[in-house]
Amino acid sequence: MPKTLEGQITPSYFVTKEAPARIYAMSRETKLIVVVRDPVTRAISDYTQTLSKKPDIPTFESLTFKNRTTGLIDTSWSAVQIGIYAKHLDNWLQFFPMRQILFVSGERLISDPAGELGRVQDFLGLKRIITDKHFYFNQTKGFPCLKKAEGSSKPHCLGKTKGRTHPNIHPEVVQRLRDFYRPFNMKFYQMTGHNFGWD
Ligand SMILES: Nc1ncnc2c1ncn2[C@@H]1O[C@H](COP(=O)(O)OS(=O)(=O)O)[C@@H](OP(=O)(O)O)[C@H]1O
Asked: Where 3'-phosphoadenylyl sulfate is bound, by residue (predicted)?
């Protein structure tokens, strides 16, 4: 019988302080896959998702800053906090070696899904079964879609909650966030040995 791999997906694992110790206690051989994207876009996407559920929340700008005049960023706001990848990774590296962690680029998952999934398959020790021929780019959605969904002859695209239009954020605020994340991004590139090109 072929060996099977079991997996579980939860976006909050990566940023949960207790998660590495708990997973390590369960199985120290576990392979970890994390999808990361530009933390600034991630924060805006996060805010957009919350806004779609709670339209009355304050503006992105007012949540970003502790003090708008000094430009002091509120790092306790989860949309900001989650994007400090180097800090979260540090926590995982107390338990797991880098070779057991794969970071998938969210940007490349859109521009080159087969390439990125090639890395995932290699990391999991699987044959490269998913390739370019499984995808087509849907211009309307702005995302790649599967030519055929599993067990079906029909295409499959991501659901309508993906690719929500992000609100326009003042360029000054975006720039301030870019400056804030830069040192953490550099540290993250160093730790992973991979330049994600977010600057
Ligand atoms: N497969 C794949 N490839 C590329 N990008 C993807 C993919 N799946 C989800 N996304 C984008 O991730 C953002 C958060 O998605 P979700 O709404 O699914 O978030 S959550 O997992 O429910 O928290 C959201 O980003 P934005 O659309 O830019 O806001 C999703 O579009």
From this structure: 37, 45, 162-166
